[in-house]
Structures are given as structure tokens and as C-alpha cells.
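Predict structure. Input: Methylated-DNA--protein-cysteine methyltransferase, 153 residues.
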Amino acid sequence: MDKAYFSSLIGILEILGDKNGISEINFVDKFIKTDVKEPNLKLCLDELEAYFSGKLKNFSVRLNIQATPFQKSVYKALLNIPYGTTATYSDVAKMIHNQKAQRAVGSANAKNKIPIIIPCHRVVGANSLGGYSGAGGLKTKEILLNLEKGNLS
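Output follows.
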């Protein structure tokens, strides 16, 4: 498994991946300069740079999702939420044909190992922003949503 680091407006991200795809993006405290050779990992860094610059709306990097079948169904649904929009936990439950699974959708979101690319930040509560388990919590979620809406100052 190769690692790369990316410094973003929401903090330092550690990206783990190999030829099979990106398997994790973690929020970390320390940037480590690495010589990235794996092509998919290089693509991920380029796409994250473009995303945080407001120039990329859809990631094409290959993913290697390590999750339960239910979680994978949720993540597949999240990948279909368009850039700059949001869906409620209930909407996602309907998208996976399990209308009573709102809480389970929230739990799957909290366990998402590939945030930003699998856009769990686009899932909100019916009357609130909901939660965000990444570093910075709801503040990070707000930054990502505002970035996608072009509202960053």
C-alpha cells in the first residue's frame, strides 16, 4: 500500500492506495513529503488539487472500497449525488431501496474511509446539516459544501 499526503483547506490528508485503487483518505496532523510513483495515487493527488481549486466536479480515480455490502450500496448512492447539491439521509435510504434505513445510512457515512471522493459531506439531515465524522466535524462539512457551491471567501 502506497501513501501520499495532500495539504488542503480542510487540513492535511493522507491518501492510501495501490494499483487496485484508493482505499483510504485520512485526516492527519503532519504532512510527509513522499515520492509518489503509483499512477492512480498520482491521479488522486491531481484530482484533489483540481477539486479544492473548484475545477473538478467528478473524480475519475479508481477506488478500492473496503466495506460491508450495505455500506457499499450507500457509497454507490453517494457517488450519484451531484456536485454542489445535497441529499437527506432519507433520500439516500430511498436511493438504495431501503426507506427505513436512514440511521443505517448515517452510520455508513460515519464509517466512510474515502471522504471527499465518496461525498458523505453531501448528506444532510431533514432539518440540519446532520453530522460529519471527519476532522473538524461540521465546520469541515460546511467548508466542503460551500466550496462546491462556490461560496468560499
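Residues 69-148 form a domain with the Arc Repressor Mutant, subunit A fold (CATH 1.10.10.10).
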